[in-house]
Amino acid sequence: MSWYGARSVYHFGVNSEGLNIFEERVVCIKADSFKRAHSRARKEAKEYAESNGFDMYPEQVCYKQGGDKLIKDYEVWSELFQSNMSLESFYQERYLKYLYVPEQA
C-alpha cells in the first residue's frame, strides 16, 4: 500500500460582489495502486462537493508519495510549473491575485 496526494478544485461560492470563490484541496489516499487511489480520490472529492453544495472541476491530479508512511515534515504535494515570470510574479499571479478574503458581516 502506498500513499497518494490528490488535488481537486471546487467552485466554493460567490461573494457579494459577484466574484467566484474557488477551493484547491489536497487529500491523502492510501491504496494499492495508482488506479485505485485515483478512483478513491474521485469518490472522496465527489462526496465532498455534494455534501457542501460545490461544483467540482472534472480534472483531478494525483501524486504518488515517496516512502512508506506519513511522518513529520512529509511532503504531501509537489507539482512543477514553467513560466517566464520571476518567482515573485509567479507567486503573485497564482496565489495572491485571486486570494479569497472573507467578507465582514
TrEMBL record:
The organism's superkingdom is given as Bacteria
Q: Name one Pfam family in it.
A: DUF4288
Protein name in UniProt: DUF4288 domain-containing protein
List the source organism.
Answer: Microbulbifer echini
